[in-house]
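Worked example 3. Consider a protein that binds magnesium ion.
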Amino acid sequence: MKKIIQLEGLDCAGCAIELERRISKIDGVNTASISFANQRLILEYENEQALRTAIEKVNSFEKVRVLEEKQTHAHNGHSHIEHAHQHGECLCGCSHTEHMHKHCQTSENETNIKGKKAIKWNHAHMKKWAMIAASALFFIIGVLVGEFAQGVGAKIWQYVAYAIAYASVGYPVWLATLKNVRQGRIFDENFLMALASVGAMCLGEFAEAVLVMLLYQIGELLQAIAVGSSRRSLADLMALKSETANLLINGEQIFVQPEQLKIGDILLVKAGEKIPVDGVLLSDEAILDTKSLTGEAEYKHVKKGEEMLSGCINVGGMYEMKVIRPYQDSAVGRILDLVENAASGKAEPEKFITKFARYYTPIVCCLALAMAICMPIFAGLITEGKLYFKDFARWLHSALTFLVISCPCALVISVPLTYFSSIGACASKGALVKGATFLDILNKADLIAFDKTGTLTEGNFTVCSIQAEGLSEEELLELVTAAEVGSAHPIAKALMGEKTSLKATSVREFPGRGVRAEMNGDVILVGNAVLFKQHAVEHPHIHSPYTLIYVAKNGVYCGVVEIGDRVRKEAKDAVAELKALGFERTMILTGDNEPRSYKVAHETGVQEVYATLLPDEKLQKVKELKREGVVVYVGDGINDAPVMTVADCAVSMGQLGSAAAVEASDLVLISDNLHALPHAVKIAKRTHKIVVENIVFSIAMKAIFMILGLCNLLPLWLAVMADVGVMLLAVLNSFRVRGSWK
Ligand code: ADP
Ligand code: MG
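Given these inputs, the predicted complex is written out as structure tokens:
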């Protein structure tokens, strides 16, 4: 069983790692993956007991709480729909005046939770700012009293001021520390800061103790703001989703949430509004802006009866549409589902930092302990030749700086955020990446193989010529129509004539070859040369730049249909861009004939052609290619689902309608635009660069601070500030991934 659990209050990345590790250990939990960036726990578990234990674990962990649980691809809200429809009114029972409907919207669960959360967040921030301001004020008072007043009384006042300053920022840290220690978690940042400040006090450095806590809290707050802004960037993407839909019942408009719509509902879409769910146009014509789906500003004219994908914006007038898919199965629902759950597949660098953090902190803490104890003894033995603590205060101070810099926050926070933003950036360009791992693969990939039909070409075939032998063209078309009725291949659609009185009794489809049908006792073969060879049927060898579909009746060749299919208009540019991005070899793997394949290769700039491949030969070819490099395979999901499972990164052409292709692939190009692929590769490359920069920068800075700390050149407060600084710089750097954002 698999469940997605939305969490709340997960504001430290180290905690996310720790919580994930703890949940994974629960009996009956197969895998647990926490995405820090969107605060989600994806849990695969065996029994309810395990689920309950996991939820308890979450709720007892720091400030983290379970916000909502949902089954993957959960369909809900339908019972509400019935209700709303029956009574013809809003869920909350109010009348539907414009100002009232706002109230209805928020009565629905989700918005409510989101709204509350936003308010609570700001509340939490305000409280922290107030705390910090109070602490800073008392700290300054303390410093001033120390500077300008003398005597015992003044000293006391100074300490009181410091104590208040310390308490106002320190108490949440201490609270968290106690809670964690009770649960057996010691090496967390709260504990380290608490320890460092106590150490400073032991050294008599009260001002420093206050500064450590104060700076740490300022850092935490800035981090929360930066992380919040990153998290919100996906909410920008959520702008795909309409807040409300205008449902028409008996000519009356009712405002409902997209989730409440069901198939067959009639909606009114006004100018400037987004289409809430997939549907067909009932009015005569509509003009849609597909930018939010594809990332490229493009106007699309839709005629009566044609399909419209949700997420597009109506830039024309007002029109009516009929719902053909419920929200969850609509383009927008699927996109958001994919993107939100993408973070579960963790990338190599993410796994690396998880491991790194696991060892780094305890090692540095042990070093600190060793330094506080061994170094003074060592120094004493060397200089004085006897056992005593020499320069204890100096070494203790060094040890404390080690404690402060032992927190790997910068890495642990910035790396997942970078991937998260990157997945969002790809989505806004029309490419849905199913996990951070695939960004890594796109970055490394050097071979790219395309399927031809439906991928490099549009897949809309038109009949160019018909040659019939021994029967009329109409009779030939009739045979073909009857044979192809059951096939979903784009070729079948093109070959089917208007009508036929023939009815096939048994049909068998040979993937990548054609079909064999029986009707009225005749055996009809429709397909390519491979199919004919297999059935040992002779046919003339025609050389043509088109796709040739041969027809035979009872083992005798009786004609050929030439069908043409245009190359996608963006294919050439997209292939050129991919080459420029470092793909050394580009190739076509197709089941079609050679002349046609070479022509497409020539038109698109693809270098290598492997034609007349059956689906399993395509699979073999990709396996071979994998030995030579990292392979990206781009297909349309028809006849190539098996190949998709072996390619390092399988890309499927949009077709949000075809669930199989979307399921089998690792990256989906929404609305069939090949341009989205080079965009995604660019983003993947940039992501990789930024992640490496952040890792190198953070580790290098830590090393420098350690050396400075060792030489006792780093005051504690500066160590905290440097730590916070590195973390913020790394997070800000991760924002650069959004360079191409919308
Ligand atoms: P591609 O690899 O270019 O996407 P496919 O593997 O889907 O092509 O199909 C390869 C070839 O098999 C087609 O070019 C066509 O000749 C033949 N074929 C496949 N399905 C059918 C069908 N339903 N009817 C006739 N021919 C077909
Ligand atoms: Mg194909």
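Take a moment to read the result before moving on. The pocket of magnesium ion (ligand 2) is lined by residues 451, 453-454, 636, 638-640 (CB under 6 Å). Confidence is low (pLDDT under 50) at residues 73-119.
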